[in-house]
Amino acid sequence: MIPEQYSIVLEMENAKSIDWDEIGVGLKALAREIVVVSSTGLARPKVIVSHGGQESDAGALRTSFAAEAPELQQVADLVFAACPGGRYYDLKNHAIPLAEGNIVVFMDSDTVPQTTWLSSLLSPFQDPETICVNGHTYLMHDDFFSRTFALIWFFPMARGDERFASKRAINANNIAFRRDWIADHPFPKHNGFKVSCTLLMHQLWRERRKIVNVDARAYHYPPRGWRFFLWRALVTGRDADRKFVELHSPNRVQRIVKSFSRWGTMSWRTTRRVIRHAPQTGMPLWQVPFSLLVGLTFYALAFFGHFSLAIGLVRDEIETVPDYVGHS
């Protein structure tokens, strides 16, 4: 591996909905990965912790980091960057100007890197033409609902899902860019909850930049609770309409038609994936019909969110994570 300096941006928005024990697992894993690549000659990295609080919160955050993963401070330079009230992509963009070196790696506070994660993300940058390297994030699962989410979510499964994984979209929680490029092309500002990833991916395609998909694995803590289920389904639908407007047409009739066609597509996709992949999650056979029902309900709610925005029943307002949703 060619020695290069790099920085890591750790987004902390989701940290408010998980506990520090879980965050600590990810921080320890990050420290382990830094040690591995540092042994190959890469310089000590800068880890930029971008959070939505105040500058005065830095002391408490540093104390928590020291308590949960003291080894991280030994292998990296920690910088705490406040972006008061910042949303998910705001926090990432806020950290980019603080990055040093040729490469910027992005991860989230609710993801846990697996072995060889960092080296897999960095290795393709030996090719000077490489601009973007995209990792493989999957949902951890340990009960009925988390297994169902793993089956219907927009992340590929951890194993046995090669076809979907080969076509995966970019993951803002598991990705690396040339610093100069991402500094000139930050995540686009948008009202949507998770729309900016898609818009940035299309920017790469417009510039004919190759997205290098690698087996840099990280797991994401699973969503929890029916409140999250309801909110995330509706916002998934609204975001689908926003993406259609940005990438295809603002025509209201076309948007309404798209809401119905997407409902059909996602219902079929859900049926196919639950039946095909449920055994890989360890789901008992008797739970599969219930999992399918939950998945179809999710995308029926997503259709309602999509249709409601397309027809003008709700306004296109800035999406923020409600305090009641739990894991996100």
Explain what this protein looks like in three dimensions.
This protein has helices spanning 20-38, 58-68, 70-75, 88-95, 117-122, 144-152, 162-166, 179-184, 196-206, 226-247, 252-277, 288-311, and strands at residues 6-11, 46-51, 77-82, 103-108, 111-113, 132-139, 174-178, 211-220. It is α/β, with parallel strands linked by helices and 328 residues long. It has two domains: 6-220, Spore Coat Polysaccharide Biosynthesis Protein SpsA, Chain A, CATH 3.90.550.10; 226-325, no CATH class. An eight-stranded mixed beta sheet has the order 3-2-1-4-7-6-8-5. α10 crosses α12. The longest helix has 26 residues, at 252-277. It is globular and about 50 Å long. The two termini are 35 Å apart. The mean pLDDT is 93.
What order do the helices and strands come in, and which of them pair?
Layout: E1 6-11, H1 20-38, E2 46-51, H2 58-68, H3 70-75, E3 77-82, H4 88-95, E4 103-108, E5 111-113, H5 117-122, E6 132-139, H6 144-152, H7 162-166, E7 174-178, H8 179-184, H9 196-206, E8 211-220, H10 226-247, H11 252-277, H12 288-311
Parallel strand pairs: 1-2, 1-4, 2-3, 6-8
Antiparallel strand pairs: 4-7, 5-8, 6-7
Helix pairs in contact: 6-12, 10-12, 11-12
